[in-house]
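Section 3.1 - Work completed
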Amino acid sequence: SMGKRIGDDIQCGYHGMTFNGEGRCVRIPGQENVPESAYVGAYKTHEKHDIVWIWMGEPERANVDDIFDLPQFTDPNWHAHQGELLHLKSHYLNVAENLVDPAHVSFVHPTTLGNAASENVPVHVSTSGEAIVAWRWIRDSAPIGFFQKFGNFKGNVDRWHYYYLHLPCIAAIDFGSSDADLKLPEEERDKGVRIFALHFMTPVNAEYTIDRWMHLRNAAVGDEAASKQMDEMFKVAFNEDKVILEAIQEEENLPQKRRPIRIAIDKGPNVYRKRIRELIEAERTHDLGEPVEPTYVHHD
């Protein structure tokens, strides 16, 4: 991380040792021989949709078909725009929970992504599929700040939030608005102004997460001025999350006198944490299969 690129190799910034893309040392300044043991960890990568994906597990288990995808990436009626990095002094589990929680927008983002009209609208949750999904519609209400600026809605709108959390830490938030008079059914959201906010979270340590974000939209396709305008609105909203998430982390670092309270909207986050625990446990243990000559014989 303190070195520099030399062609497709990386040169260490301390003594100039140079490593190729496989992690093998190819040059040591001042000596001819390069020991076989001079190597660093290397990981499989794959570029897709202007995103570099890294497989950090066992190389033989890497499968590019498992990489997150959406059909809108390749749809000419949609525009993809890369955002920025958001550095959060927060555990990634708390960050991920925030991204499967439609309920918080009423209180954390009252002038950007939410307003008071949604406070008591029920949140629906589905945990039966690969992704954990939480969603709700707010019908015939004033447009939120984001769509007042971008959607140019004058009267009331129907708006939606669909939060998809893919384990371990990728979130896709499908949100948008349409004129209330249209009374759009759920499956016709493309007729309104529809946006996917995508979040790719990297846990750094127990109190630090990097959130790389971008968006897809079905409006202002090819308009870079609109992209910049939306970036600025997103940054305001995501910084509102940052303030809350970092305050939560500070609170959780204090001695806890009692167990956390779980409320109705925690259904999605509860299932998420359970699945993460199961994934971690699976990594720590080996499935040896059925014993060939079992020591114990069961009769029940």
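Second construct:
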Amino acid sequence: MQIKKILLVFLLLVLNFVAGEWSGASNRENYSSVLIEKFKLTNTEKSSDLPAIDLLQTALSGYELLKEEHTINRPEVITIIDFSMPSNQERLWVLDLVEVKVLYHCLVSHGRNSGEIMAENFSNKPGSYASSPGFYTTGETYFGKHGFSLRLNGIENGINDKARERAIVIHGADYVSPEFIEKNGRLGRSLGCPAVPEELSKEIIETIKDGTCLFVYAPTESYLSTSPVINRIASFKKG
């Protein structure tokens, strides 16, 4: 009799957990959909300043998942980088999720071994000089060879979790500028870091430091099929 009671309690716990997971998935989807509509309404004059809607949906769903797990310390902003776009276009956004507005929309570099104008090859290996996609949290600031910089914590195992070891950081660079594009047809490339315009780097770093969410999107099957965060989002939707 006692064993039956224990099994019954265990079954109820499992069912409650599953129900909570399904409810969480539904809440995440509702949250991101509502927020996207708010962004579209409040940025009607600058709709081109927003990321692609599918990308924004994925980024916000992942952000909500990480927020629920307390991986994110500062949930008020999210940074999105879209590596499906060429480097001569503005493909980085910092979004204020409280005021529902675009704080920054600017150029950002990719790693020299990821490609020329397009980032097509990605790596998590030290010394690869390539960009790593996926979800990150921002770390602490420091002054290094590129001046004021921001450390990044890759949170997707096998995809970007060696970011610290590789010294993948956000920093300013003079090769991230319209002038460089005019001369070369593309941005300069980093050793794997998402470098931003020098004149904006301090503002951006101060805005997103200390535990905000960063999502670097790469439209490759190797990333999308193996991303722990994206696969969890997909499995919740199926459930």
